[in-house]
Protein 1
Amino acid sequence: MPVPARYRARRCCLAPNRFTLAAVQPEIRFRVPGWVDETVGWDRIYSTDDERAALAIELARRNVTKRTGGPFGAAVFESGTGRVVSAGINLVVPANNSSLHAEVVAFMLAQAKLGSYSLAGTEGRRYEVVTSCEPCAMCLGATLWSGVQRIVCCATGDDARDLAFDEGPVFPESWSYLEDRGIEVVRGIRGREARAVMETYRELDGVIYNAT
Ligand SMILES: [Zn+2]
């Protein structure tokens, strides 16, 4: 069957080498760069919050130095064993996708890996996210819907705002809401180190990609 004309890309008569927008939507895919897998100790036991935070920050740092995205990293861990389930980095600019914050990337990869839309403790396991910076409004919501039962943060939302990243509507009540839903919140682990990664990003003239 021929493709209806309205679905075909058409050449623009004013600029023949350019196409007008076709009435079909693209398939969305993303893949983290190979260095992410190499950064994670997949067989390693990350016993403490400090060790887990160090990984999240290292992901953020390498994302900056390798110029593969914004200054944020996150990882999902199996809380009891300390094993890494997934590792995410900020891919907003390279993927042209405002939703691909490090936490969201980590949740997507963990859920795909485990074959479940929820990380809410299948077979007695509990999961947690460790992020190099306190989440923005979107990622705070994604944390709730991901099913993780613990969140550990490094730099603060104020650190991000100082460096011109908009965190959106995150209020003290937002944190309370998570805690009331049974999510343990730990903040301020290796905070200075995580902030320094954001400062490096700014010094390297990294794109600050807020909504406005
Ligand atoms: Zn976010």
Protein 2
Amino acid sequence: MFEQGAVGDNHFLGDVQRLRVTAQTMMACGGEPADLLQTAMSAEIACVLRYSMIAVSADGLENEWVATECAAQAADERGHMAKLAERITELGGKPDYFAANLATRHMAAEASKGCLPRLLQENLAAEQCVIELYRELSTHFAADPKTRALLDHIRTDEETHTSDLEDLLQTQLI
Ligand SMILES: [Fe+2]
Ligand SMILES: [Fe+2]
């Protein structure tokens, strides 16, 4: 489990960390499969919002590849959200697209000159937390191969996101 102090002002990480803790609590208490998948779907909604905000606001900055990369990641996250919604429905649940309590909804992650390294570091920390969420959910769904395959597939995409972010952080960001 993450240390509370590791979150700081990273509200994106705060959101996914809270969702991970919620999932851990549900798993310990025998929560419904659809409710467990909803924690991951809510994390994906936070990711869609976060990357979309950065992609739009970074457009036109000197590091234009950051906007391009964030737009591509936002598209991936929307795909993850849709696949989870589909599986939640198959399991008899009702996907919640609103995810009301996300701090990411209220905290603008606008890219401006000079802040890209911080924003990308925050994304990296949140992605690492999302990967752990998927790892834990996958273990929990060991007896449900279809759900487990979906979770593992999404986790592989998230691992690609973290390495893409690490690559971006190696570049000369302005
Ligand atoms: Fe995702
Ligand atoms: Fe991701």
Protein 3
Amino acid sequence: MIKKNTFEYFEKNGFMKINLDKKYLKDYLNLKHTIKKSFSKNFKNNSFENFHSNVSFDQINNLRMRIIVKINKVKKINEKIYLSAKKILNQMVGPDIIVQKNINLAIQMPNDSSRALFHKDTPLSSHHEVVMWVPLVNCKKTMCMKMIPKKFHDKADNLLIQTNEKIHEKFAEKYGVTIPINFGEALIFNTDNFHYIPINKTSKTRWSLNVRFKNLFTPYGERNLLDYYQIIDSSPISNLLKN
Ligand SMILES: [Fe+2]
């Protein structure tokens, strides 16, 4: 059983770092192996961290889309990701839980300026939803997203009217939190949380998966259950009633 104060930081700020269940780390290692084997031409002999050595900014998005297709063909990949954080997720959003059908992958190569702008995932996502962000490599400094704590959200909401990226960057620098996340760990954040993706100024490529979870019975955003999610776990009372 997870201790109650495990969620103190999350309840205050809207995000937290977690350790993935070691039992399921092999699934992530297998996934990395599958990616490397399927895209060996692009990897050459490089590691995930050095993927940029042979890939240009022009190629990366197309390649990323092809890797996403491959990842989503891995049998029960979203169930495997769920199991690696099940204990936390079940306490955070409840035992009747749904998961995004398709896993996303972000690849942020050093100095590549193309990335999502400062944003939050609501109202497209439900307010009752969390994103699980799982790096496939160790991430620190500008490989990490800047997370804006809940107490600054009103300020951030006003800022969204501005489209100037420099202003967003300045805001994220001032109020954002950088949490180093290693392979084997994950960041969980509420979809209401603003996040800023800096230009990766390190010498390593950042690889990260992201997938969304919510309780089956909480209000939805603009995405509906059947199109976007699948039920991944259910409570004994729900099981009783559906039989
Ligand atoms: Fe986002």
